[in-house]
TrEMBL record:
GO terms for molecular function: acyl-CoA dehydrogenase activity; long-chain-fatty-acyl-CoA reductase activity. It catalyses: a long-chain fatty aldehyde + NADP(+) + CoA = a long-chain fatty acyl-CoA + NADPH + H(+). This is long-chain-fatty-acyl-CoA reductase. Pfam families: AMP-binding (PF00501), LuxC (PF05893). It comes from Streptomyces venezuelae. LuxC is the fatty acid reductase enzyme responsible for synthesis of the aldehyde substrate for the luminescent reaction catalyzed by luciferase. Its EC number is 1.2.1.50. The keyword Ion transport does not apply. InterPro entries: Ald_DH/histidinol_DH, Ald_DH_C, Ald_DH_N, AMP-dep_synth/lig_dom, ANL_N_sf, CoA_reduct_LuxC.
Amino acid sequence: MTVQHHYWQGAFIGDEEAGRRLAGLPAAVEAALATVLETETVLAACDALGTALRDPAHPVHARLAAHLPEGEDPAVLAELGGLLGRRELTRKLRRELGSATPGRLNRADPRETVYEAWAPVGLVAHIAPGNAATVAPLSIVEGLLAGNVNVLKTSSADSLLTQHLMAELAALDPTGAVAARVVVLRFPSSRQEWLRLMCAPADAVAVWGGEAAVEGVAAHVPAGCRLVEWGHRISFAYLTADAWSDTGTLEALADDVCRYEQQACSSPQVVYLDTEDEGEVFAFAERFAGVLGARPPAVVPAAAGEPDPAEAAELTTTELVARLEEHLGLTRVFTAPGGGFAEGSWRVMADTRSPLTASPLHRSVWVKPLPRKRMIATLRPMRRYLQTAGVAGGPADIAELSRTALAAGVTRVTPVGAMLNSYPGEPHDGVYALQRYSRRVAVQADPARFATTACLDDLARPVVLPPPAGPLLHKEDVQGPGRRLAREDAELYFHSGGSTGAPALSVFSYDDYDTQMHAAARGLLAAGYDPVGDRTANLFYCGGMYGSFISFFSVLERLGGVQLPLSAGPDHRATARALIDLGADTLFGMPSYLWQLLHAEADALRAYGGLRKVFYGGEHFTAEQQRTLKERFGIEVVRSITYGSTDLGPLGYQCTESSGGVHHLHADLHSMEVLDLAEDRPVAPGETGRLVFSTHARRGQQLGRYVIGDLGREIPGRCACGRQAPRFELRGRTGDVMRVATYFLNHRRFLALAEEQGGHRGELQIRLEGLGGTGVRERLTVRVERERTGATDPDRLREVFLAGYPELRSAVAERLLELVVEAVDGASLDRSPASGKLLAVVDTR
């Protein structure tokens, strides 16, 4: 039976098949790159695998534990699981590539039609080390995050952990795109033909190891291919006089030396003292030897245990040479009693010469003098090998010495005691891995034809996200008392406007908020906003933790647009004067407030004649109201600024081909379903149902399959604007449907009849009251905004409602309902105190 220890694009294969496929690797790479790998696909699969690895009882954990190298602590799987979590990988993407979706061609500057993205280099060949179980799979994950096809070589002595890890990861991706981009081969370095075949078509080759290993691989790297070296590095500690006399500093330094027995590149091999006094060097070495000698043997991975014969020989030679030089007054050697190489043995070698000397490791440390004025001259010759400097001293010393160490060639500076610590997204050996596996690409487009295109990918292909799963969530599930966010995820708090009940509290991380504001900014460009020419008055309501004003301040900031942050206020005259004096031509705000402002200051604003665009949110301008804005005020563009919710953020946007309640879905952030009004099943295509959204970009909280409370229908076909994002049409809120007597009545029906049959152009609100007694049980009052010309006729509108709404007519005829129509001033209509939004239905029963 053929041993199948190679993993090739979703299948385990043997040597013969692997050799055959290697010959056709270029064609396999081209086929894989022809399909799109969404960043979200990688994040979702990695997060699911990370969750399984952190659970010892999970079947995936059990399957992979069987493939751990002999002597490897199973805890390494939990460690790997932590590194594969969505939080860590998203942070890595943001830090290294600037975005959680770095592959999308967005405008680098919203004021220019120049689109930039990070694109994969193509094929990355990874030559993994044989002594670190997590390095190989994490290297492939980095390649996947950058969108590449990845072929990885493991040592012939390695277990099949990486192969099976990648198989488990691919199984968690329903699209198959991950599997298509992963090949893991196990063969010895002596098989040079295989090494040549995997490197020949590569666009980047990543190799771990010393100079000999790098040279061996470099011989197979073709011209123009990027060679990414993750070689051996050397690190040191640097102590000022105040620090080396402090017992706590010595204890921290001993932690760095003993942790992993100096097997990490960031372990200190040399301790430099900021002095020229040889006596101080010898005295410190003796003191530090006492601290090191008090340390018990560490519990470390098998790879960092007792030295092998070659390492033991190096230890012996180094110590003997240092002891011989004691007779010359150059060195002093302090060792553990009895010497030897058992775990817990140590040696401190004081040397009066400053040049950097590699340690034989296993708790072996050089102590040398190095005045800070000579640091650059002494260390710079070794700059290719320098990695970490652990610096101890006062704040001013640390600031100065950090700069000097970096100038000498060091790539990272840490406190003493934290040299082996790292943080998510930290650059490795002075570079970001994801940038080394990516290319920065740009597309310049015609400003006239692409003025409203914020992302080129919207025109090229639809975004495909993992399908939504799990139970439906309602407002009480998201806003309920059982909802708890980790403190590090709860950074920004917003209240809803409270138009459908008590204000709800929504919580965001700043990363999520930034993602959403960029999405809303792209949607605003699609709707026709011009960040170069428009002068915008932000007239949303502000205060009480209400988010609209703050959010659109942030949107305009990201667009680089001119902004007048006035906010909505009761003094319409002062607001109108500011608009005129400051030359505003674009208004952002709630329809209710903008309608009141424009009519209250109609004479001044019509005389000004400078208003050209209105972008509204939170409610809708009816068709008649939009006609009024254009005819009476000369406004050319009236469009939705966004469709969204306080919980989920921006959900949809209008394009220049959209009108009414039609929006495109922010498909890079959300998935959408349309479910039946009564049953939790999809409606037929084009039918109206409950809108259900699943968001894929929220840190620390799951907002999948959220029943938002709005009604709508999906619009089939591709929009005339060319975007491939799905479209939907809003059809009101579930709260607009009123149970009155034995009938269901809809606020939108009243509004349509008032406009189409009654010629009404203003606002309309319905008030419900219970009457009690033995007569008519309920009263429905339609309150319509009185026109300034006095043309509003309540009696005529009552006739229109009764004639055009059979269910209403029946309820009135059966004396189940009393219908009243009132013409009132717009200011007297009930509104949300936080947002100013008109309350469509006020139910006092």
